[in-house]
Design goal:
Elements lengths: L8 E2 L11 E6 L2 E6 L7 E5 H13 L5
Antiparallel strand pairs: 1-2, 2-3, 3-4
Organism: Actinomadura alba
Pfam families: DUF397
InterPro entries: DUF397
Amino acid sequence: MDLSRVVWRKCRRSGNGGANCVEVAPIGDVIAVRDSKNPDGSRLAFDHAAWAAFARRVRSGEYDL
């Protein structure tokens, strides 16, 4: 997957000036995800249904430590 031209975005609620966050980019049928601290590192890709399910769980507090 060519990610050279995608527009990455961070959550509006990112702490630490956005330095400790993930960035996402919609690319066709997938959502690409990367670590803002290491933008050239590994990236993950999720289909829209999987990303929506993950986001719902985050918002519900299911993953809070």
